[in-house]
Amino acid sequence: MQMSSQADPVRELLAQQVSGTSENPAAAPMQMAMTTYENWMLMWHGAAFLNQVVQSNGGGDQLFATNWLMGTAQRPLAGGQLLLRSMLSLEPATIPKNGYPQWFQSGEGLINHQHPHDFFMELAAEFAVDLGHQTAGYIYAAPVGSPALGPAGFPHRVSSIEIPQAPLGHHLEDSTHIASSVLTIGAKQKQFGLELSGFHGREPDNSNRWDIDKGSLDSWALRGTWDPSPNLTAQISTGHLRNPEANEPGSMQRTTASATYFENDFAASVIWGWNHKSSGNWNGVTAEGSWRFNTSNYITGRFEIVQKEEFPNTIKALTGGYTKDVYKSKTLLGGVGGNATVSDSGGSHPVSFYAFVRVRTLGGM
């Protein structure tokens, strides 16, 4: 999937995208199973975790599954490349409506719980064309998709793919990786990119996770990206979200900055997110990483400092974990693992333990 930008900037642009038009470093592997049919290149990849969480301080224990599956179809068209992408999740069936327990998590009306993703995570079409001078221009349209705001969503970020639970700063940093009525235009020349999105700012409807939410383009986002090398991608973005929370009327301005690095099976990200509302300002910083060693072993970590409207005190959380691959076929990789999180907020120090079984796709033809 990694191609020379001098040979074809359009193909490299599309190969680097992971959800919407967000990016991982070009050097990061994209474990897609691929085949061809006539002029189409067909690809699919996904991941599923079966998790058992145990929490102290009465936080609750639960068995649940996080999962997603993406399919893409790409072909030449009118001097450019057409990319069709769909991403689905069975979390509405494998995670309760009130989410899975997670200390100090919040969003979409839930407290101390992380909500399931919608069944339709992305349905999108993107057309990209070579504009000359090593520049690719593109337009992305999606009834459900990801606007140009924030880093790659945590399920697809190369630094977090072995950590099944969401970051506590999710709704400060990358929660718009599922939005409705998204339209993005952008261009990327060599290492610099700029894109503008219009989208519907309301978060997904928690009352029905199986349908496609609808809404007008009432919000906007602007993102600049910088890829100084195949190993590093960075972005800075800002967006105005109109009434994002159904139970908390009011618009917000979200600004984020992030950098993600990948080299020799080591991945790391640093992410900052800031939400400004009439009721106040909230910040979050996330540092996370994953290191694969001896082919089949992974060490993972995440450290967060977060301020949230729902909690009166600053939250600090440290997660450490380990995963071991135990099964491998031509297209699937299975592993077992776990992690532990120690949190601190206003003198409260709950501990959470996750044990999981993981299956993800491998590349192949």
Topology of this structure?
Elements (H helix, E strand, L loop, with lengths): L8 H8 L16 E5 L2 E16 L6 E16 L2 E9 L2 H4 L5 E8 L2 E5 L5 E13 L2 E11 L24 H4 L5 E11 L2 E9 L18 E11 L2 E10 L10 E12 L2 E12 L2 E14 L3 E10 L8 E14 L3 E13 L6 E11 L4
Description of the molecule:
The structure is a single chain. With 365 residues, this protein is mainly β. It contains 3 helices and 19 strands. The protein is globular. The N terminus is likely disordered.
Characteristics of this structure?
Porin; 4% helix; 58% strand; globular; disordered N terminus
Q: Give the name of the CATH superfamily.
A: Porin
Which word captures the global form?
globular
Write the element-wise H/E pattern from the N-terminal end onward. HEEEEHEEEEHEEEEEEEEEEE
**Which percent range describes the beta-strand content?**
over 45%
Count of distinct strands = 19
- CATH T-level topology: Porin
Query: How large, in whole angstroms, is the Cα Rg?
Result: 19 Å
Total domain modules: 1
The separation of the N and C termini measures 12 Å
Helix content: under 10%
Question: Which CATH first-tier class would you pick?
Answer: Mainly Beta
CATH architectural grouping: Beta Barrel
Spatial arrangement of strands, main beta sheet: 2-3-4-7-8-9-10-11-12-13-14-15-16-17-18-19
Number of helices: 3
- Average pLDDT value? 94
The class by helix and strand makeup works out as mainly beta
The poorly predicted ranges are 1-6
Largest sheet report = 16 strands, antiparallel, barrel
